[in-house]
Amino acid sequence: MVTSDSESARTEKALSDERESVAIEVDGVAMVRLLGPHDRLLRVVESKFPDVEIHVRGNEITLTGDRDSVAAAEELVDELIAMVRDGHDLGTQDVESSASILRQNQGSPKTLLGQTILTARGKAIRPKTLGQSQYVEAMDNNTIVFGIGPAGTGKTYLAMAKAVQALQRKEVDRIILSRPAIEAGERLGFLPGSLTDKIDPYLRPLYDALNDMMDPELVPKLLAAGTVEVAPLAYMRGRTLNKSFVVLDEAQNTTPEQMKMFLTRLGFDSKMVITGDVTQVDLPEGASGLKLVSNVLRDIDDIHFAELTSADVVRHTLVGKIVDAYTTYDAEKQRDEYNSKNRPRARSRNHEGR
C-alpha cells in the first residue's frame, strides 16, 4: 500500500495533535521532598506512566505524552505537591497508594492519606494505603472493629495509634492491650522469673509500639498508674471494661470461647479493635475464634470487619509478594485436597466381574 505525502503529513499532524505537553510550576516546596533522594519518588511516578516523558528543570516539571496519560500524571503530581505542602513526608508507598487511589477513582489521596492520627517523636502516624484509610475511618465510626489481614498491613500499629489518640483527647480513661499467650509454632519450654517475666515476651511487640508512639519515660508511669495496661488475654475474664480503648492483637490464636469471652467484656463508652491474620493460626488444635466470629457477627450494626490485603503491606515490597505467593499456594493446596476427596473411586475388579 502506497501512502501519498499528503496522507503522511495528515497522519503525523493527527499524532502530534494527540500529544500534549504540560508544565507544572512547583512553588514553596523543596524539590527533594517531592522527588525524593536521588529522584527515587520521581522514578515511581515514571513507572506508573511509561508513556509520559517527565523532565525536571529547577522547580518546573514538564509532562509530555498522549492527552489522557498526561492528564492522569498531572493529577498525581498535583496531589503529591499538595501532600508535601501539608507537611506529609512522602515515601515510595505514598506515591504507589496515591496512584492506586486515583486510578480507582476513590477520591483525593491528599484527603485519604493526609489524616494524621498523632505525631510522636517528630513523626506523623498516618494511614499509607486506601485500605488503611478505610480501616482508620471504621475505627472512628464503629464501636467494635475487626482488622483482618496479612503481616505488615499496620493492623495493630494503627489501632494502637487510635488508642493513644483517644487517650490524649480524653475520650477514654485507659488503654488496654492484650494478646493470647501462644507460641508461634515453637515450644519455648520453662521460662524463668516471675509471672510478669514469663508473659512479657508475648507482649513485647505491644510495648515496642507504645514506645514508638509515646514518650518512653511516660510509658512506665502510665503502666504503673493503670492508665495503660498490657495483659495476656486470660486476664480479661470476669471484667467489664468501661471508658476504655481495648485492642486484642493476634486474635487468630483465640479459641471461639475466648473470643466470645473477650467481646462480652465491652462496657460503656468503650471501643474494641481486634486484629489478626487468619492465615497464621498457631493453635495446636481446634477452630480459630477469629475465623468463626466473621460468620457470627458480620451482619450486626456498629461492628465492622476491615479486610486488608497485600496491597496494604507497608513493609519491604517483598513482603507483599511473599503474602501473595503463600495465598496462591494455600488456594492451590485447598483445591487439590478438595479434588482428591471428591474424586470418584475406581470400582474394584471383583465388583466388576460379578
Shape summary: globular
Oligomer kind? single chain
Q: Give the radius of gyration.
A: 27 Å
Distance between the termini: 74 Å
What is the helix/strand order?
Answer: HEHHEEHHHEEHEHEHHEEHEHEHH
Largest sheet: 6 strands, parallel
- Mean pLDDT, nearest integer? 84
Q: State the total count of DSSP E strands.
A: 11
Strands of the widest sheet, in order across it, are 8-7-9-10-6-11
Any low-confidence stretches, pLDDT <50, length ≥5?
183-189
Strand percent estimate: 15-25%
Number of helices: 14
Helix/strand-derived class?
Answer: alpha/beta
Give the helix level as a range of percent.
40-55%
Report on the structure:
α11 (256-263) links the parallel β9 (244-248) and β10. The protein is globular. It has 354 residues and is α/β, with parallel strands linked by helices. The model is unreliable at 183-189 (pLDDT under 50). α7 (130-141) crosses α8 (155-168) and α8 (155-168) crosses α9 (195-213). The strands form three sheets. The protein has a six-stranded parallel β-sheet with strand order 8-7-9-10-6-11, sandwiched between helices. A three-stranded antiparallel β-sheet has the order 1-3-2. The chain contains 14 helices and eleven strands. The longest helix has 26 residues, at 317-342.
